[in-house]
From TrEMBL:
This is NLR family, CARD domain containing 3-like. The keyword Ribonucleoprotein does not apply. It comes from Sparus aurata (Gilthead sea bream). PROSITE patterns: DAPIN. Keywords: ATP-binding, Cytoplasm, Leucine-rich repeat, Nucleotide-binding, Repeat. The gene is nlrc3l. Residues 166-244 form the Pyrin domain. SMART domains: FISNA (SM01288), PYRIN (SM01289). Residues 1-74, 129-154 are annotated as: Disordered. Residues 140-150 have a biased composition (Polar residues). Residues 41-53 have a biased composition (Acidic residues). Pfam families: NACHT, WHD_NOD2. One of its GO terms (molecular function) is ATP binding.
Length: 738
């Protein structure tokens, strides 16, 4: 018995009317759609007749045997070779029971099987064939835990809803109108052929464009084609049905354009890097201690007061909004902080990009970015058409995101979406958390200060999750009752640094750079900050273009000089609105560095690494200028014993470096040796007061202090002071690695 006859004997009754047989042959001449349950009306009528007559059995999974001359007679097709595999067929394969056999009939030959094999296969096919899920009800059936990644799309944003909406609208066209629509659709879509557009019925057409173009592109091109053939009412109807999906798509495109290419330092034409290509996720901890790395080249005495979080507190970037509160509820408001240059902006870009590419957090219907820079711009410039001093939160969203106009989704409490509010330190006005009026309506106009407070409170945009990012000295002003979770970006581990450098370059250059920077232990510690890792990659890439580079260890001090310059320049750009061509330091900028250096030197003399606000007043420094804007100081989360806020430099060695800069600057500009206190015994060579004011005398004073201090707090200070006196820093402040 041949295989076709045997399959027919199993799945067909012995007696069947010839007329029904002919009808069934016509029915199965067209390959079934991947979305099997989304049938046309004619097919549903034919199925109704079959069920009433009870003369034929239609198998739940279409199966086809290759090379069969009775394709229409067997009524079995397993794989439609001309159509790519879809989500429906993939789910069917994944849900097969253990031990079931999957037969790929596209390349097999019936002659390779014996009769016994055929009988075994038939038995397996009958007993192990799984019942396929209903495509209409399909919604990420493989994911059972709602709190797991990548999440579930909203039903109105998922494929079945878009498929049926497109099919329903196109079903209202006459044959002539449908033909004209298909011609126009083909002319302006290069990814699909004319035969693919014209073959089959309407269900085949919708099925095919969804498979080839994807649901978003197919939907947009369908709407534009309807408008081009003067079917604007149908186009508007389709827009209305798929409004939620269209809004998500447009927000996705905005985030992809904004974050797909990472902009590091000074952007150079033709030297762009894709974020997905080079991104390495830093450690993010739910138990932050300030983000300061206590590692030091010389052991400090007494030990550092800064603690380091344990690995069990680390959380994945995409799981920030899957954290739970003490009562088991998911968090609403998450605050993420870190020291300057730790990578908060890059983390926002990666989170948004993963959502846009449907890699994570698909259950978030929308992600809307409302930076604090945006609110500060509105507060100072007021660009809205109304020119009113007050505006509603929906007016702001619609002004910066046109696709959100005339949408009621955001007012629904069950609408799960995310508002990203980064750069809190850029909002320079104080926020009144206690006395700000309460707003319960998204369309109530209010001052930007009041809107920010109410968004964080949760009285407006009730369905929103809120992600706030900023430097710790800025985010610490938010009352704890409005924050569900505080996370801190800790930076890279040593393995992450190597992975980051390996992703940036090809060939043997990464191994050269990795081996080279590790020759300086302090640089290896400093490179745990992603900003410094980028600096290491950029500087050494240029240096290895020179012949013979790499014989000597790299210099450490140029990296500290560059960090200081970059952070002060960022201060001018972010907080004072200066352009890239307007970054010339004013007298106030220079005085800020000198005063911070003076404070750092006094702290070294007292063997202190932590200071409070009262210490700043001693040197005529403002708290905001130092702790928020400078980029070289951060706040510690633990207050002092008397409850005062505590601060420190971004690394202990940076305190020693900026103290050396202060000593050298006063020596060069005022010919003043601040280290010559008169208390130290100077060698006879430097007994003259004028001689102690020479460069050699300055170094000699620093050396005397270093040798007379058993705790060693001047060791790195001496190294930096000697380095900044070299000729390269008197001529040029740029990093030079030779």
């Amino acid at each position: 018995m041949d295989s076709d006859t045997e399959v027919e004997s199993i799945l067909r009754p012995e007696k069947e009317d010839e007329e029904d047989d002919e009808e069934e042959k016509k029915k199965h001449q067209r390959p079934p759609s991947s979305y099997g349950s989304m049938k046309s009306d004619e097919e549903e009528e034919e199925e109704g007749c079959d069920e009433e007559s009870g003369q034929a059995f239609v198998p739940p999974l279409p199966v086809a045997l290759p090379g069969s001359s009775t394709h229409g007679g067997t009524r079995l097709q397993m794989i439609r070779s001309e159509s790519p595999e879809t989500l429906y067929t993939m789910t069917t394969q994944q849900t097969k029971p253990p031990g079931a056999v999957v037969i790929d009939t596209r390349s097999s030959d019936l002659g390779d099987f014996s009769e016994n094999d055929e009988e075994d296969m038939d038995e397996l096919l009958v007993t192990h064939s799984p019942e396929p899920p209903e495509p209409v009800e399909f919604n990420d059936t493989m994911q059972t835990d709602e709190n797991s990644q990548p999440g579930r799309l909203h039903p109105e944003q998922d494929l079945p809803h878009i498929f049926k909406s497109v099919q329903a609208v196109l079903s209202g066209l006459t044959p002539e109108e449908l033909y004209k629509f298909k011609v126009w659709f083909y002319q302006w879509e290069t990814a699909i052929t004319l035969q693919q557009v014209m073959d089959g019925d309407l269900l085949d057409f919708v099925d095919r464009i969804m498979e080839i173009l994807g649901q978003d592109r197919a939907l947009l091109h369908t709407i534009s084609s309807l408008e081009q053939v003067n079917k604007k009412e149908e186009a508007e109807e389709l827009k209305k049905k798929c409004k939620r999906a269209l809004m998500r798509f447009q927000l996705k495109q905005y985030l992809i354009r904004k974050h797909q290419v990472i902009r590091e330092g000074v952007v150079r034409a033709g030297r762009q890097n894709m974020l997905d290509t080079i991104y390495v996720q830093p450690h993010i901890s739910t138990c932050g201690y300030g983000g300061i790395d206590p590692s030091h080249l010389f052991p400090r005495q007494p030990p550092s007061p800064v603690q380091v979080p344990s690995p069990d507190t680390y959380v994945d970037l995409n799981n920030l909004f899957r954290l739970q509160k003490a009562d088991g509820q998911l968090v609403r408001t998450v605050v993420t902080t870190g020291i300057p240059g730790i990578g908060m902006s890059v983390s926002v870009g990666k989170f948004a990009l993963d959502w846009s590419e449907l890699r994570a957090n698909k259950d978030l219907q929308f992600i809307i970015k409302l930076s604090f820079r945006t609110f500060w711009y509105l507060r100072t410039k007021n660009p809205l058409p109304s020119k009113k001093p007050e505006m509603s939160v929906m007016e702001i969203i619609e002004y910066f995101h046109k696709e959100c106009k005339d949408t009621k989704f955001l007012e629904e409490e069950d609408c799960k979406f995310l508002i990203i509010m980064d750069a809190l330190d850029c909002y320079q006005a104080p926020l009144d958390w206690e006395n700000a009026p309460v707003i319960n309506d998204n369309y109530t106009p209010a001052h930007p200060d009041v809107l920010i407070v109410n968004i964080i409170r949760g009285t407006v945009l009730r369905g929103a999750r809120v992600w706030i990012l900023g430097r710790r000295a800025a985010v610490s002003q938010i009352p704890s009752q409005f924050v569900d979770a505080v996370t801190e970006i800790q930076g890279f581990s040593d393995e992450m640094i190597d992975e980051y450098l390996a992703k940036r370059f090809d060939g043997d250059l990464p191994s050269k750079i990795i081996a080279h920077y590790k020759r300086v232990p302090m640089l290896q510690v400093l490179a745990r900050q992603p900003f410094v890792s980028w600096m290491v990659a950029t500087v050494f890439e240029r240096c290895y273009r020179y012949r013979g580079y790499g014989e000597h260890p790299p210099r450490l001090t140029p990296f500290y000089v560059s960090i200081l310059i970059v952070q002060i320049n960022r201060r001018l750009q972010f907080y004072y609105g200066k352009g890239e061509n307007e970054l010339k330091w004013s007298t106030d900028d220079k005085n800020l560095v000198i005063k911070m250096g003076k404070m750092a030197l006094k702290m070294l003399e007292r063997n202190k690494s932590v200071f409070v606000e009262d210490d700043l007043k001693e040197y005529s420094l403002k708290l905001t200028e130092v702790a928020v804007y400078s980029g070289v100081v951060t706040e510690l989360p633990a207050a002092s014993a008397d409850g005062k806020r505590t601060f420190c430099f971004i690394h202990y060695t940076f305190q020693e470096f900026i103290a050396a800069v202060y000593v050298f600057t006063l020596f060069r500009l005022e010919n003043k040796n601040v280290l010559d206190s008169g208390l130290l015994q100077m060698p006879k060579l430097f007994t003259s007061k004028d001689q102690t004011k020479s460069a050699a005398g300055l170094v000699q004073c620093a050396l005397e202090r270093t040798l007379s201090t058993p705790l060693g707090q001047y060791d790195m200070f001496l190294r930096f002071l000697v380095a900044v006196q070299t000729k390269i820093y008197l001529i040029n402040s740029e990093v030079d690695c030779h």
